[in-house]
């Protein structure tokens, strides 16, 4: 048993270690200092509990921990996974126009709540709300921080006192991910869940039988990230709407991704429901995310009957989840872009849509160019392969988009090591390891990032 007093002498000096690490790591010195102090304290406790690391080992451990911590700082990433709306990589990237306006607004003052013609206090998000309503063909619309907030607000507004029952089909009690489960969202909103039908079958009578004087609303939830098939049945939305309205109840739908256009016209993939169609079908209020297929900033959009939207905006909780000027700016730019191109089709600079519809031959050409730019000995370890891209982000789980990847079989290092090096290099690159190879799917890589791929690969070899 080593003497703890002797072992404690192995602890490195905070000052020296901080000095060395500050040279290696571009983090603020004060942050490195507190990090090192905490880590040394941890090692002290471990030594007192019997651990026997040498000073070199302790220094190496703290250096590794700091590198891992530094890598957790938000930074740009090249997404070579082929998953277009990648939740872990920040969902939808913004288009150039939105990013440019964002800089202008962010670095100065703006008319957030100011009426320029008369110089008086103005209405926040007034322009955006009108533009949204126009695009969505809705009586009224507004935006909050995310779709989860939009749904909670809607439930809080419509479920009052004893009249708080929300009817939902058992086939729609979904978990979206990141802790978003419909039954739990209902519960935290003060609503009482009334499940109807079975997992695979729900009919109109199931809904009708569940209506009582305590019913507040009927809720439909889009099965964003899974699908059911086989012996299934569900009533037409228009029939549910008729039933709801005959009973004086609102019908609300959480449609999740909120595609503005027919996704099946962009690529050979599923048709994702649009809010416009939902409203035409008789839904009174729809909510959806702004940063999925819409390709905007993180936000939750609520659209539908004027009286309902106005009521929601008067909820005290609305204030807690309202959008800030940066989000409003980006969303405004995004919605204007859709409106400007409403009749034209196409993808008009929304990256998520461009990635979905990109021609596979263009991807193949880019792959050839990238490989041709590599040195000979590296080139022989790369091949062009057919891959499968996905929309991701809990949208269209069945859709597979044919894509092209550069597949690398490394020679002197393991494939996992290669993947780690690319993830932790100067510009982080995230690919997919499969079958002993590292695949870099080009469908989610911006054109202008091809040279960074080449540079990173050369750097590693
Ligand atoms: C993604 C999704 C949500 C959550 O949206 P956030 O904007 O992440 O809060 C809610 N409902 C459905 C159906 C979804 O697909």
TrEMBL record:
Location(s), subcellular: Cytoplasm
Cofactor(s) demanded: pyridoxal 5'-phosphate
Keyword terms, alphabetized: Cytoplasm, Protein biosynthesis, Pyridoxal phosphate, Selenium, Transferase
EC number: 2.9.1.1
Catalyzed chemical reaction(s): L-seryl-tRNA(Sec) + selenophosphate + H(+) = L-selenocysteinyl-tRNA(Sec) + phosphate
GO annotations of cellular component type: cytoplasm
Pfam families assigned: SelA
Residue numbers carrying N6-(pyridoxal phosphate)lysine: 292
GO molecular function, one term: L-seryl-tRNA(Sec) selenium transferase activity
Family: Belongs to the SelA family.
Main function: Converts seryl-tRNA(Sec) to selenocysteinyl-tRNA(Sec) required for selenoprotein biosynthesis.
Protein name: L-seryl-tRNA(Sec) selenium transferase
Lineage: Bacteria, Pseudomonadati, Verrucomicrobiota, Verrucomicrobiia, Verrucomicrobiales
């Amino acid at each position: 048993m080593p003497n703890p007093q002797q072992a404690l002498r192995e602890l490195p000096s905070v000052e020296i270690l901080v000095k060395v690490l500050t040279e290696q790591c571009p983090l603020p010195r004060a942050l490195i200092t507190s990090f090192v102090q905490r880590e040394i304290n941890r090692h002290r406790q471990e030594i007192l509990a019997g651990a026997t690391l040498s000073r070199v080992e302790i220094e190496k451990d703290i250096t590794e921990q700091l590198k891992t911590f530094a890598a957790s700082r938000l930074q740009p990433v090249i997404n070579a996974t082929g998953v277009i709306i990648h939740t872990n990589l920040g969902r939808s990237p913004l288009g150039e126009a939105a990013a440019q306006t964002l800089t202008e607004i962010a670095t100065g003052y703006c008319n957030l709540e100011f009426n320029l013609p008369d110089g008086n206090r103005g209405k926040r998000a007034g322009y955006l709300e009108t533009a949204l309503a126009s695009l969505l063909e809705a009586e009224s619309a507004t935006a909050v921080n995310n779709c989860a907030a939009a749904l909670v607000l809607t439930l809080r507004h419509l479920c009052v006192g004893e009249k708080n029952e929300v009817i939902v089909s058992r086939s729609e009690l979904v978990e979206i991910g990141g802790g978003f489960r419909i039954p739990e969202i209902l519960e935290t909103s003060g609503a009482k869940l009334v499940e109807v039908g079975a997992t695979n079958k729900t009919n109109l009578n199931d809904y009708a039988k569940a209506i009582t004087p305590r019913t507040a609303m009927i809720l439909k939830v889009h099965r964003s990230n899974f699908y059911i098939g086989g012996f299934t049945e569900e009533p037409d939305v228009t029939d549910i709407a008729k039933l709801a309205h005959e009973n004086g109840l609102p019908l609300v739908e959480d449609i999740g991704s909120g595609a503005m256009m027919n996704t099946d016209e962009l690529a050979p993939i599923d048709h994702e429901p649009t809010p416009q169609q939902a409203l035409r079908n008789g839904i009174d209020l729809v909510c959806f995310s702004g940063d999925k297929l819409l390709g905007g900033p993180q936000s939750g959009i609520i659209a539908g009957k004027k009286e309902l939207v106005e009521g929601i905006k008067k909820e005290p909780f609305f204030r807690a989840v309202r959008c800030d000027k940066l989000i409003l700016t980006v969303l405004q730019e995004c919605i204007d872009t859709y409106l400007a191109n409403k009749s034209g089709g196409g993808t008009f600079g929304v990256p998520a849509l461009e990635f979905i519809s990109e021609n596979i031959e263009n991807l193949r050409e880019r792959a050839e160019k990238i490989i041709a730019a590599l040195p000979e000995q590296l080139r022989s370890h790369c091949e062009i392969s057919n891959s499968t891209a996905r929309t991701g982000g809990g949208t269209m789980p069945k859709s597979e988009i044919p894509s092209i990847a550069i597949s690398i079989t490394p020679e002197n290092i393991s494939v996992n090591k290669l993947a780690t090096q690319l993830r932790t290099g100067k510009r982080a690159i995230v690919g997919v390891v499969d079958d002993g190879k590292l695949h870099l799917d080009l469908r989610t890589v911006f054109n202008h990032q091809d040279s960074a791929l080449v540079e990173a690969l050369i750097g590693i070899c």
